[in-house]
Amino acid sequence: MRRLVRALGAATVIVLAGTAGAAGTTGAAGAAWAADPAADGFTIEDERITESSGLAASRAHPGVYWTHNDSDDGPYVYAIDGRTGETVATVTLAGITPRDVEAVSVGPDGDVYVGDIGDNFGGRWPEVWIYRFAEPERLADQAVEATRHTVRYADGPRDAESLAVHPVTGRVYIVSKHRDGGALYAGPEKLPASGAATFTRVADIGLWATDAAFSPDGTRLAVRGYFGGTMYAWEDGRPRELGRLTVPVQRQGESVTFTPDGRTLLYGTEGERSPVRPMPLTEEQLPESAREEEPGRAGGDETGEGAGDEAGDRKPDTAGDDATGDGDGGGEGSTLGFVLALGAGAALLLALRRSKRRGGGSS
């Protein structure tokens, strides 16, 4: 019987340890996630939003995310409550007739930038547009005046679905979309009030990009595609590749943004009641400000064990391009917990059989 008790105790410790290590939303990590109400993801409930193509965290309204439909919807931008997934405001861009809206970003000036930059003909349109309006102080259905900026590329027209405004410099960047990989284009330091803004190629992006986003501190650039993504360190106005992103399997992956604390990427997709899935970041992919704030870093070096304990609690779901599920958070944790539970059950069964063979053993 003592062996059975010891096996039971060991199995309990294994299961509890596995659960704590795999959950990813408990302990210190859970406290960090709680800082943003959307860190667990949400579902866009508005039946009007069936082709959500862009996503951006509001600067003026914590917990609110801006999105919009693809083409054929009209000049509308929607403010979504990250707690409930409900629309809390519909903003109409007065005097705007959009063609193919694909991206949204919020700049350090407090303005929302909407990218009418899609070109399904692969470069037919000689110019595209960016619409800019100030984030409303009060979230309610309203019409706003938007500035329309004309965009041209220095090396000719192209298709694009990714627009990101740097949160420190305010410079606007576009990532072109191409099956064999696109490129990062930088706009002028400031978009001109009149005339065309010329965007210049500054780096290759080896991805069929559908969206991009800067981290809140501006030290990371995330670029996603339909089936994958890449994280870049942002250094002197240029990207340095850090590695592959964990991207959830989605119906048609279209958007990405950082939560305001920089610790989590939120991935959106098209479709009715489309889910926005969270993927927490760890180690080098964390923005610099988030890495500096990690409590576990005090006991370790830049790459090592002090950070590893904290990062381990926040290990992301690895259900990326190769996964067969829907990419919802916690795929790896739940699998690990299941394996550990099976192992614990086997240990208990073995101990019980041995105990019966010995006639119950000593008490």
Question: How would you describe what is shown here?
Answer:
The protein is α+β, with helices and mostly antiparallel strands and 363 residues long. Helix content is 20%, strand content 35%. The chain is built from 5 helices and 21 strands. It has an 8-stranded mixed sheet, with no helix packed on it. Strand 6 and strand 7 form a beta hairpin. Helix 1 runs antiparallel to helix 5. The N and C termini lie close together (6 Å).
Quick recap:
This protein has 363 residues and is α+β, with helices and mostly antiparallel strands. It is built from five helices and 21 strands. The longest helix has 27 residues, at 331-357.
> First CA to last CA: what distance?
6 Å
Could you estimate the helical fraction of the residues in percent?
10-25%
Helices and strands, in order, run as HHEEEEEEEEEEEEEEEEEEEEEHHH
Quick check: average pLDDT? 79
Oligomer: single chain
> Structural class of the helices, strands and pairings?
alpha+beta
Q: Major sheet: size, sense and barrel closure?
A: 8 strands, mixed
Poorly predicted segments:
1-34, 297-363
* Strand arrangement in the largest pleated sheet: 6-7-8-10-14-13-12-11
Question: Shape, please?
Answer: globular
Tally the helices. 5
- Gyration radius, to the nearest Å? 24 Å
Strand content: 25-35%
Number of strands: 21
